[in-house]
Amino acid sequence: MGSTRAEGTGQRAERLGDGLRGRCALITGSTQGLGLAAAKRFEDAGCRIIVNGFADGKYIGADLRKPAEIEAMITAAGPIDILVNNAVVRHTAPIENFSAEAWNESLAVNLSAAFHTIRLALPAMKARGWGRIINMSSIYAQRGAPNRVGYVTTKTALIGLTRAVALECVNSGVTCNAVCPGTLETELHTGTSLAGKQPTGRLISPDDVSAMLAFLCGPSSNDINGSIFPIDAAWSSS
Fold first, then answer.
1. pTM of the model
2. Is 59 known to be catalytic?
């Protein structure tokens, strides 16, 4: 029974990753949580993985607050086929107590890093006629939240960045989409109350979100461009 189940899991990963074998995928913020799940998903699909801290991939320890280090990371990675902008910082405080340092770090890591990785990776994608860019936004791009001004602002701005890049990529073979998860089943959210959040009362599985990422990079996604995908168990519909 155990071997049959393992084979089924592998076959499912292959189906979700059809057409990805040999592609190079750069996933920022990949040491834990969703980024780690995504790195494993793309590795299972046969991708060469470039991550920030995943042992089975090529590790590049760029400080995403610094544009020069982002540029060095893109150069060291070589031609990138798939870019997942997942890196994030979270600061919690009322706006009157939200420090300038926290605000600037939120902008740098959550938003500007995505701008820089895209602008640096996109020319080679266009030259090869194929590329996939996915920006990890959030339920909080669609619903506000108190004491999270940096997170809400940057995750909302990622939606605008996604749409602008998508229009610049029309007919290039490159697509740019955004995924907006609800509260994920990660160490960060252990013990988190879901009152007023996911109507199911369950945390969102990182494996389910990473499966969507793989689909958006597969051969059936050629005409999916500039789209925003909530994965929040109907939270955004409530």
1. 0.90
2. no
